[in-house]
Amino acid sequence: ALAAYTHFKPKIIPSYTIKVTGHSLGGAAAAILGMYYQVEEQKLEKVITFGQPKVTNERGCEKFWNLPLIRVVDNKDIVPLVPPLTLLSFIGGQYRHVGEEVILHEGGHWLWLSKHDANRVLVSGTWSNLLNESVEDHYMRNYINRLDAIK
Hints:
Blueprint: H1 2-8, E1 18-23, H2 25-39, E2 44-50, H3 58-63, E3 69-74, H4 87-92, E4 100-104, E5 110-113, H5 115-121, H6 140-148
Parallel strand pairs: 1-2, 2-3, 3-4
Antiparallel strand pairs: 4-5
């Protein structure tokens, strides 16, 4: 994220608005890029990520509460749960998601959580689907198929 930020910063045309997207680790980088742009007060319109792992903690959630981030997650994708809650989380603080969340389910069903609900409920931060996940649930092809199924 820092390398991309450093590379693109001098190329940004001031009158343009910025949109950033990414999948998986690219989604994490996109979220962090959005944080950089917000700190620099760039014209950041939207950050949309797919299957993004957690990139911040409670303090980061507070600092970047107004980040225009939408996280799209498959309800069986394990990557948005990473890093998981562990004993070390109680010592150093747990990783958290920030932003709105769209949870994709089979059959064209989906659930949208405002940033207030996503932060409070932490649906993608639970282990409710433990042992139900597969690697294929994380593939971008799966996300596209789930989005195409929405009526």
